What does this fold into?
Amino acid sequence: RQVQAQADVHEVQKLVSPAMTGDIGLGTAWMRSFLGACQGCRIDAIAIHSYYCDLADIQRLVDAYRGFGKPIWLTEFACAVQGRDVSMQGQIRFMKEVVPWLEQESSIEKCAWFSSFSGQWSYPITSPDPDAGLVYPDGRLSELGQVYLSLT
It folds into this structure.
């Protein structure tokens, strides 16, 4: 309720849940528990992260969280599964498959690519690190960044 009070004072338009990632069953159970404990709280959207590498897995994730009856914010997504092609070319293939679906999916209100180049992950979850950066430090778009721009 303190968050909601501060949001009202500062005219925050949307309050979004904590973001879930990982095991869908554990994540949805935690979200159910959170929402149950926060009766009367203003939560305008449900946030999720995804590091899956297939459209079908992201669709399954979105389907699970759609059940909460609120818009979904996919606040981080990139392909980062051990044993999958997490190279720049692998990310491009994944992005071309997933972004068009996300752009037309009515339950997705917002989405944001998790942009990080290989070697930049603070807590690597695969080896090698995914090469998912969109913008180089000098401001140039990577090949992946150019693809993302063309899809959005």
